[in-house]
TrEMBL record, chains A, B:
PANTHER family (alphabetical): HTH-TYPE TRANSCRIPTIONAL REGULATOR ARGP (PTHR30579:SF2), TRANSCRIPTIONAL REGULATOR (PTHR30579)
PROSITE patterns in alphabetical order: HTH_LYSR (PS50931)
Keyword Ribonucleoprotein: no
Annotated NCBIfam families: argP, PRK03635.1, PRK13348.1
Family membership noted in the UniProt record: Belongs to the LysR transcriptional regulatory family.
Ranges where the HTH lysR-type domain occurs: 2-58
Keyword tags: DNA-binding, Transcription, Transcription regulation
Protein name: Transcriptional regulator ArgP
Amino acid sequence: MLDYAALAALAAVVREGSFERAAQALHVTPSAVSQRVRLLEERVGCALVIRGQPCRATEVGQHLCRHLAQVRLLEHDLQDVLPVAAPTAERARLPVAVNADSLASWFAPAAAQYAASAPVLLELTVDDQDHTAERLRSGAVLAAVTALAKPAAGCNSQALGTLRYLAVASPGFMARHFAEGVQARSLALAPSLLFDRKDQLQARWVRRQCRKAVPLPCHLLPSPQAFVEAGLAGMGWGMQPLPLVQPLLAAGRLVELVPGTPMDVPLYWQHARAASALLDGLGRAVLAAARAALG
Amino acid sequence: MLDYAALAALAAVVREGSFERAAQALHVTPSAVSQRVRLLEERVGCALVIRGQPCRATEVGQHLCRHLAQVRLLEHDLQDVLPVAAPTAERARLPVAVNADSLASWFAPAAAQYAASAPVLLELTVDDQDHTAERLRSGAVLAAVTALAKPAAGCNSQALGTLRYLAVASPGFMARHFAEGVQARSLALAPSLLFDRKDQLQARWVRRQCRKAVPLPCHLLPSPQAFVEAGLAGMGWGMQPLPLVQPLLAAGRLVELVPGTPMDVPLYWQHARAASALLDGLGRAVLAAARAALG
């Protein structure tokens, strides 16, 4: 068996970012934490923590952290079965990765509703829908909303529906930049909006429309609300998620660059296969919300 | 003089994350990019890029990138003075770090309004208000909205006002967890909301109220809107920024844990000192918006 006190020390260091704060959280001395992690590293034969500001898990360390999170979830399920379970008032931690547009629209109310009544602590991390699956694979999270259909090793995948994106801009922006039409030439000069460096949606839409890649001047706006605001203010055009801009399109404050050219991004709920009633409960809440909100 | 073609190659690698994509952006071969960066590294005597997925700048590399951004801004100002300026239709890049709550409330409309009419490309990065100043110091950005009053080296600092935070929860959550009052004992059991691991606001409020540190069970919700949703759904209590929750407080959907115990976070606009009309213009727009929105 693995040494679970040592695993808990490892997970606390990674979660809190330092050996000192991990020691506070576990009510032990920093040297006890550091000794447990060191012994575990000797046992498994490789480094588990990259010492730094903050401390981070190595790849093997991430797998061990995910393993611990799964074991804790399973222990939690046991409490309903055993009359005298482990004396823990501790809530189970559910690390989940979500793409920002889902979190800003349909995901947050569903997850909040579930976590408000279930004995869990949700630990959400935000990443691009093309990259949340990596976090699942690396063991950093137990579940993810992702654009990848193919399940990661040890995971199940369920279709959530598609999040529709439209290439939109303000009417003023359209008049300034696309009066002569939306082609490669005008797109190469008109500022676009990019959520972050990983965001490929604008480039994909342009490649589909123009049948070639066009280098796009871009603003970087890593916030779904700022992204919408920027569109409204005529700062640039961008692929906006339909649930966030539907009322603005209806009011004519945003318009499609080329009417009827949506891009649909299919989303999947991937989760670690080890059955756990708590993770299953979150999954059901997420699936129900997605089916109501997505296409 | 520094080799500016090499600096541009360095900045493109850091911006795009790989030598291949930098080469595409600069319309040269990847080996040309890699040679320019290597020669620059030999010249300055240290590594400038950490080769990885994605490639990142070393500390010296970040300083060189910021220097290049400043030089580009200054060149941009020249275009108004010289009848025949450098033949560039390129917009100036303004890398700026902003805390998430500012970006989600007062900052986005102001910056979008400015960038919609000025010949710039805004590159926003989001970080905790206690950490945006580090990005300025490290040279990753030219300006930042930060909680640090003391200007970073080579920077000016202007007060923006204070962003007010209130410890709030839903009425149902209050009844479930704080029926016997808000003390260390009840706070140690009631789930709190944390924006991310860097978020110290909840811990600071508890330390002030209880006159000691209390370990808080916490959900992690790295999105201002998800944070508000989680509060509404009764998932936990948290320090919410007043501009985002004022209507919800007025409607009674959220209530203060202890009435009249706000925490005010003073915010500052810090920017690189090298005068540039474009950076000054953004600064004026940000200051005006902050004065209208903050206390």
